[in-house]
């Protein structure tokens, strides 16, 4: 695979033992298929880059700028993406289990078939994201924004929802004022749907 001079230099430095590349600027770069486990790319600018099939388990991408970046089938197992900007990024079929996306911007991102099992999505912005066939089993969605997302065929068993803004704009708070996290089962998803439909029919404001 042919890489640009900048990417080739990055790979050479990594292979020589360097893992810290904070603030790196590689906008539109072709990084498809790179193997950079545990690399530190915090605050990196990787907008519109190609990271398809990249192997990045345990990587630090804190506050990184990944808008419109393609991460299809990438391995981000256990990666740290706190407050990363992934707006309109494509993470289709990526492996992101146990990754930390707390406070991340995933608005309008494509997450079809993505594994986010056990991921930390506290206060993440997923507004308008494609979540079809996404695996969110055991994920923490406390305070996450799911407005305008499509949760059909999404796996949510064991996910935690508390003050999570659901696709229709209503806030999930099953425990009332307790603020305790609630594990999702198909039964309470169905209960939420019935309640939402009932309130919509009566035009009741729940705010």
What is the count of helical runs?
2
Q: What would the CATH topology be?
A: Pectate Lyase C-like
Proportion in helices: 10-25%
Strand order of the largest sheet: 1-4
Rg is: 18 Å
Amino-to-carboxy terminus distance:
54 Å
Q: What structural category characterises the helix and strand content?
A: little secondary structure
Low-confidence stretches: 175-181, 202-207
Q: Looking at the structure, what is the overall shape?
A: elongated
CATH second-level architecture: 3 Solenoid
Q: Briefly, what CATH class?
A: Mainly Beta
Largest β sheet strand count, sense and barrel closure: 2 strands, antiparallel
Describe this entry's structure for a reader.
With 207 residues, this protein is low in regular secondary structure. The chain has one domain (1-207): Pectate Lyase C-like (3 Solenoid), CATH 2.160.20. The chain contains 2 helices and 4 strands. The strands form 2 sheets. It has a two-stranded antiparallel sheet with strand order 1-4. Strands 2-3 form a two-stranded antiparallel ribbon. A hairpin with a 5-residue loop joins strand 2 and strand 3. The longest helix has 17 residues, at 186-202. The radius of gyration is 18 Å and the shape is elongated. The chain starts with a helix and ends in a 5-residue tail after the last helix. The model is unreliable at 175-181 and 202-207 (pLDDT under 50).
């Amino acid at each position: 695979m042919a890489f640009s001079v900048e990417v080739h230099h990055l790979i050479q430095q990594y292979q020589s033992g360097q893992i810290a590349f904070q603030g790196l600027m590689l906008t539109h770069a072709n990084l498809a298929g790179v193997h950079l486990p545990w690399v530190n790319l915090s605050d990196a600018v990787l907008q519109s880059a190609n990271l398809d099939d990249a192997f990045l388990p345990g990587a630090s991408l804190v506050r990184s700028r990944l808008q419109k970046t393609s991460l299809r089938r990438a391995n981000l197992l256990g990666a740290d993406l706190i407050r990363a900007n992934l707006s309109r990024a494509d993470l289709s079929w990526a492996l992101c289990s146990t990754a930390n996306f707390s406070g991340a911007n995933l608005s309008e991102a494509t997450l079809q078939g993505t594994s986010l099992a056990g991921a930390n999505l506290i206060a993440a912005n997923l507004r308008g994201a494609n979540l079809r066939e996404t695996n969110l089993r055991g994920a923490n969605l406390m305070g996450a924004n799911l407005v305008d997302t499509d949760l059909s065929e999404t796996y949510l068993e064991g996910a935690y929802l508390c003050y999570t803004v659901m696709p229709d704009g209503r806030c999930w708070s099953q425990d009332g004022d307790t603020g305790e996290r609630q594990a999702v089962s198909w039964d309470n998803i169905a209960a939420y749907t019935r309640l939402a439909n009932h309130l919509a029919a009566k035009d009741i404001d729940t705010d």
